[in-house]
Amino acid sequence: VSGRVYLIGAGPGDPELMTLKAVRALGAADVVLVDDLVERGCLAYARPDARIVEVGKRGGCKSTPQIFIDRMMARLAASGHVVARLKGGDPLVFGRGGEELEALRAAGVEVEVVPGITAGIGAPAALGIPVTHRGLARAVTFVTGHAEADWRALVRSRATLVIYMGLRRLPLIVAALLRDGMDPRMPACVIEKATLKAQREVVAPLERLPLAAAELAGPAIIVVGEVVRFAGIREALKAA
Ligand code: SAH
User: Fold this and answer.
1) Which of 35, 73, 90, 193 is catalytic?
2) Catalytic pick among 18, 165, 182, 186
3) How many Å lie between the centroid of ligand 1 and the Cα of residue 144?
4) Is 57 annotated as catalytic?
5) Contact present, 206 and 174 (Cβ < 8 Å)
């Protein structure tokens, strides 16, 4: 194979939630660039002689500059290497994967995207929460808790809200939702380290969620909506 980059989604955590295609692309790589959100067990599917490069640290720590990652991938691919860029969840959902794709294309690198199960789907599934359900939720919205969202519009939409990167701002987010008219007793939950052995979750009415989730550290997904009533049916096949 000629030099190329596979932009791969590793899924939400449990390595068994990687796709067959992700495993195959990872196994073809000479070099693997892996985000720290990715469970180390996923690397078992890399070639034993593959070079593993850890990039991108979370929350406060010094992160690898994006430009460095982009240039390294382009340089490796141009010199004939097969590069696996392994990112948590889906590579093109909230993880700057789109930017990487753009940079690689601009550099004339052949890129193949391998989708993955995003945490916003995998985390609710780990509790048996359907993100849509006839009669309860006709839509689902994926939103980041980082920036200021149009919470009013989201409340009015009655869609299930799946919030990424929102744990630190949870009190602010809940205050905004309540101010914009959401029922204080709306079922809500926070799922930390979803699908991993260390998974923890709290389920509470919206108004009590910040207090209930105070002990959690993340990474975490917040789910708000009637569908959270389904919470509790733990997925049978969790990471062993
Ligand atoms: N591309 C990723 C998201 C990257 S943004 C995806 O599609 O899932 C990082 C955020 O994803 C975290 O702050 C958290 O909100 C969420 N996340 C990723 N893995 C998670 C997990 N195992 N459990 C809970 N939340 C997770």
Assistant:
1) 35
2) 165
3) 10
4) yes
5) yes
Compute the chain's Rg from CA coordinates.
Answer: 19
Q: For residue 144, which atom of ligand 1 is closest to its CA? A: 15
Alpha helices in 18-169 (DSSP H): 20-27, 66-78, 97-106, 119-126, 151-157
Measure the CA–CA gap between 133 and 140, rounded to whole angstroms: 10
pTM of the model: 0.93
Q: For the segment 162-211, what is each residue's pLDDT rounded down to a tens digit?
A: 999 999 999 999 999 999 999 999 999 999 999 999 999 999 999 999 99
What does the pLDDT look like over 74-118, one tens digit per residue? 999 999 999 999 999 999 999 889 999 999 999 999 999 999 999
Residue type, 201: E
Q: Is 47 exposed, middle or buried (0-12, 13-18, 19+ CB in 10 A)?
A: middle
Ligand 1 centroid to residue 118 C-alpha, Å: 7
